[in-house]
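> @MW can you paste both from yesterday?
MW: sure, first one:
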Amino acid sequence: MPADALRAIRSRIEAGWSQDAYARDAFGEQVPLGSDEAVAWTLCGAFALAGKDGIPMGHLPAALRALADVTGMESLNGWNDEAARTKDEVLHALDAAIMRVEGGDAA
């Protein structure tokens, strides 16, 4: 289900969020997306790793649409990497997208 995908993505972002690099290590250095050293991810990186988190790839399009609906974003990377963006904003957007796919008010 798309809500499960969004929850997995939210959990990864809550553990660590990155900008301008799909994944970063504990020192803030860019590492390969699938690296065991990664402790922070961009939204795009978290979406890409959803399968590793046990989420069927077929659930991602609806999850991405819900996130786009609540943020108005045209680009996942562009939205995530805006200089003024905060981790709290990303988590709030994911929460709103979860509510949207579960049929709640995502305002």
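MW: second:
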Amino acid sequence: MFYDVVGWVGMILVLVAYVLLSTNKIKNGYLYQWLNFFAALLMAIGLFPKNAWFSFSLQVVWGIVALIAIVKLSQKKPTKKKNKK
């Protein structure tokens, strides 16, 4: 039961992230990538005891991609806005 609930919460996070991005409520930035990371983590936890290795592997890769994106975002230098006259 615990693993099912954890997996469902992860699935909901994926949907929330996708809906927010698709409706332009958020950008592809920290929030979106952290939602993806935690969603993948929770779904992987939910899948592990079920021996659903193909889905578990997908979530591990999904989480790694999100972490890479977070690292890249943190390494970006802030851009200065230029005043247009």
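> thanks! The mean pLDDT is 92.
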